[in-house]
């Protein structure tokens, strides 16, 4: 196996470890690390979990040292290689710099998949390692590594979450039957069970799910993460409700567990108190054209450490979000149905066409999934 093939092989393993941290690292990035000794044997592996504090590199180093102690073997770190999915940090935050831990270990080489997206620290970790005499390599499996931490990349630079838009629609772009053919506050399924099951991992990977009150009135969704996968904090369910029309007997209100927030421009104190008494957090923002301002909404969520927001909205909000240029990634679930022009459209009155580049296609039974990145959250030059 050549050096480049070997680097790709072990970085793929580090990426597998990083994915174990999805759901339990926010607001930190998901990072994985594999350490090999001079002979190319794995002696340590690790990934980051926010509540356990230690970064992936330190977890892997500790595992290598513990293995040596347990089996009374020599320290095999010296002269070894570390494969890390993100450039190691060179600053003190909740923990000390990982660069210093790597240098102290005696490793000879560090391979990182991608640089840190934080403009103020990117490159400094690799520079510190090189200054200490450690050979470095950057960019192995970079696209996969960046995909894992798109939310972190957006947030760390702009203090706003990555916006992932999910839409389930027919071949002719409809999301519900014509008015009068849909029972209010009951879900109307456009896509198959397989496609709907694929939405749960999207919710698991997000810190918040956002919808509008029109969708609540039409479908009465729960908007919960039912993936069954571990997560550090509950999925925050966000509802945009300019006039506070949220029904007090809807599923989200009945099921609230300190995980529902309504953003509004209404100053109806009586209604606000009714909702708050039922455990709903209500945030009042200054109106823009009588609506909740999307820019200020995402600013507020960013302040709360929300890295990724999954939007599951109706026609008006779908259109407003895309028209605002704030959507980073789209995931369309397309069912082989045709409803006709009288049915409810997914989008309406777009000021200009949205181009989807490098579209990824998946099948869920007879349904299609179309995924595309609209705005790359990573810095252009590192």
Automatic annotation (TrEMBL):
Binding site for substrate: 203, 223, 226, 312
A Pfam short name: dCMP_cyt_deam_1
Active-site residues, as the UniProt record annotates them: 57
Residues bound to Zn(2+): 55, 89, 98
Binding site residues for NADP(+): 168, 189, 215, 219, 242, 314-320
Segments forming domain CMP/dCMP-type deaminase: 5-137
Keywords, in A-Z order: Hydrolase, Metal-binding, Multifunctional enzyme, NADP, Oxidoreductase, Riboflavin biosynthesis, Zinc
Single Gene Ontology MF annotation: 5-amino-6-(5-phosphoribosylamino)uracil reductase activity
Reaction catalysed by this enzyme: 5-amino-6-(5-phospho-D-ribitylamino)uracil + NADP(+) = 5-amino-6-(5-phospho-D-ribosylamino)uracil + NADPH + H(+); 2,5-diamino-6-hydroxy-4-(5-phosphoribosylamino)-pyrimidine + H2O + H(+) = 5-amino-6-(5-phospho-D-ribosylamino)uracil + NH4(+)
Cofactors named for this entry: Zn(2+)
Enzyme Commission number: 3.5.4.26, 1.1.1.193
Highest rank taxon of the organism: Bacteria
Residues passing through the membrane, by range: none
Family, per entry: In the N-terminal section; belongs to the cytidine and deoxycytidylate deaminase family.
Role according to the record: Converts 2,5-diamino-6-(ribosylamino)-4(3h)-pyrimidinone 5'-phosphate into 5-amino-6-(ribosylamino)-2,4(1h,3h)-pyrimidinedione 5'-phosphate.
This protein's name: Riboflavin biosynthesis protein RibD
């Amino acid at each position: 196996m050549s050096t480049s093939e070997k680097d790709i092989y072990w970085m793929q393993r580090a990426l597998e470890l990083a994915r174990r941290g999805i759901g339990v690292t926010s607001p930190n990035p998901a990072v994985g690390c594999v350490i090999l000794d001079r002979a190319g044997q794995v002696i340590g592996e690790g990934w980051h979990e926010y509540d356990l504090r230690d970064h992936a590199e330190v977890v892997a180093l500790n595992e290598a040292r513990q293995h040596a102690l347990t089996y009374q073997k020599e320290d095999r770190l010296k002269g070894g290689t570390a494969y890390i999915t993100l450039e190691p940090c060179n600053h003190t935050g909740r923990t000390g710099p990982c660069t210093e831990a790597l240098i102290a270990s005696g490793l000879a080489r560090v391979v990182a998949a991608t640089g840190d997206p934080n403009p103020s620290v990117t490159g400094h970790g690799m520079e510190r390692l090189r200054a200490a005499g450690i050979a470095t390599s950057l960019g192995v499996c970079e696209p996969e590594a960046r995909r894992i931490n798109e939310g972190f990349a957006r947030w760390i630079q702009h203090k706003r979450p990555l916006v992932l838009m999910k839409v389930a629609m027919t071949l002719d772009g409809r999301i519900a039957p014509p008015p009068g053919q849909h029972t209010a506050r009951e879900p109307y399924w456009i896509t198959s069970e397989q496609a709907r099951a694929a939405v749960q991992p999207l919710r698991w990977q997000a810190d918040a799910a956002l919808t509008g009150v029109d969708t609540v009135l039409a479908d009465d969704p729960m908007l919960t993460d039912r993936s069954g996968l571990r997560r550090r904090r509950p999925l925050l369910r966000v509802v945009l409700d300019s006039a506070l029309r949220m029904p007090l007997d809807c599923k989200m209100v009945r099921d609230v567990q300190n995980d529902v927030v309504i953003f509004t421009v209404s100053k109806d104190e009586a209604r606000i108190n009714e909702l708050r008494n039922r455990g709903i957090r209500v945030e009042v923002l200054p109106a823009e054209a009588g609506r909740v301002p999307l820019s200020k909404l995402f600013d507020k969520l960013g302040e709360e450490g929300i890295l990724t927001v999954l939007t599951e909205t109706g026609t008006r909000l779908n259109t407003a979000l895309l028209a605002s240029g704030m959507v980073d990634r789209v995931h369309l679930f397309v069912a082989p149905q045709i409803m006709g022009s009288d049915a409810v459209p997914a989008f309406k009155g777009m000021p200009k066409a949205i181009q989807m580049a490098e579209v990824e296609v998946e099948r869920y039974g007879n349904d299609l999934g179309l995924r595309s990145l609209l705005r790359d959250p990573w810095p252009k030059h590192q």
